[in-house]
Amino acid sequence: MILPVTGFALLLGFWASLYLLDVFLKTHVHFSRYYISFLGKSGLSVSILQLRWYTTCFNRLFLRLGQWRPQFLRIWFTAGVVFGLFAMMLSVFLLSLMVYNTLSRQPVEQQVLTPVMPGVNLPMSQVTYYLVTLLVCGILHEVGHAIAAVREQVRVNGFGIFIMALYPGAFVDLYTEHLQVISPLRQLRIYCAGVWHNFVIVLVAIFVLYSEPVLLMPFYSTGKSVVLTYVLENSAVSGPRGLHVGDHVTSISGCRVTSSADWSQCIQASMKEPVPGFCMAVEQVRKEDTAIKSYITPGGYLECCNSTRSDTHLCFGYNTKANPNREYACLPARTTTDNKQCRLHSDCHSPSTEMTCVYPSLDNTTKLLRVEHYAGRRPPLLFLGYPPDLHYSVAVSNYVPASPIVPVHLPYVIETFSKYLISLSGALAILNVVPCYALDGQWILLAFIELTLRSTVTSQETRSLIYSILILFGSLLLGTNIFIAMFMLFVR
């Protein structure tokens, strides 16, 4: 599947229109002065496929944060140096392993790099989570650089946010002359601060993900039922008498549902087990029977209800003491399924009247499921169809709101956002330390070489040669992995 052509065309059209409008306003006789003044005051700038916002309004905040508890920040960002150097070695190892496995034709399904592209391998419904997570990770990454820079007496000129094509990001502008004159160790604290904060984001997101039941305990309950968070429109389960978002489901045809895992297991069990019957008095069956003429359907099962009764009645088969052969009756489905469930004729017993177990007359794939739910005065849902259709028509959550004013979707939002933070922030932490041009790893490697080799390799030219060889290797390694990942995504 490729990115929808319409969406791609709209994206290009938007950027082309924005760029042309920018050029027009900058060159117009009457508007250019006001427009350029507006751009200077707002910090906005437009270029091909890119929109930037640059500001100095956060400089005072960075100054306060960088001067808060200097000793703690020194330990904090020194820990970031340790992590950054370890992450650099880990990233080089993983990327090298990927290339080795590819060249040796080993299985490479678990890729180190997997390009994420909306409409290709990212559902469009998840694009908002993806873009917001990228922006949050980028901002906190750059805030780490800014605070560390202030801590090491390097001036912060400004901070900015940009959108490149579809992807958001952030950047911090540091005073280069200050940065170049401080010691390599202090440089490392600044260079590693971004990926260190990305790693901390991962730890925080893991904590939130696994402690979510405790954090949400005052507002949600778990372990008693599940709540519907999505119902597919115009499906077999929607409509006025169907399921609705916010319904609390407790069971499916007698199978207890206390979690989303139970929901899936009950639906799977309904596919394997025979459809249960319902206990009814033989006299009541014959009284309510509206069957006129029975016939065998193309599916191979017997149908005894005419078309005018198809919405409310269903054909049931049963046996009696007087006639051991199977008889059929067209009975109202709602009142029939209100009776006690049975698997065998012996499950139904009454000392005063003859009882029987009536079974729905269905084909091998169609099931009759009774979905019990707390939904005001609406009766339980009777689902007649293929059970996986029920599974794909709704989405459920373990977190049942304690009050109608509590949002149903909040736990899903927190869980999904946490998973994206773990995935994307972790990926940024590992990839940004690769010794490659234009990444943090480029400057981390340079400062590390100066820190460790300056006393033993006294020649600046020799250290520069070592740096150039390593940075070239890292760039080729990352480029090779990107090529492999794109090949796996589009060619295979």
Automatic annotation (TrEMBL):
MF annotations from Gene Ontology: metalloendopeptidase activity
Protein name: Membrane-bound transcription factor site-2 protease
Chain's role: Zinc metalloprotease that mediates intramembrane proteolysis of proteins such as ATF6, ATF6B, SREBF1/SREBP1 and SREBF2/SREBP2. Catalyzes the second step in the proteolytic activation of the sterol regulatory element-binding proteins (SREBPs) SREBF1/SREBP1 and SREBF2/SREBP2: cleaves SREBPs within the first transmembrane segment, thereby releasing the N-terminal segment with a portion of the transmembrane segment attached. Mature N-terminal SREBP fragments shuttle to the nucleus and activate gene transcription.
Upper taxonomic lineage: Eukaryota, Metazoa, Spiralia, Lophotrochozoa, Annelida
Alphabetical GO biological process terms: membrane protein intracellular domain proteolysis; regulation of response to endoplasmic reticulum stress
Keyword rRNA-binding set for record: no
Domain of life of the native organism: Eukaryota
EC number of the protein: 3.4.24.85
UniProt keyword list: Membrane, Transmembrane, Transmembrane helix
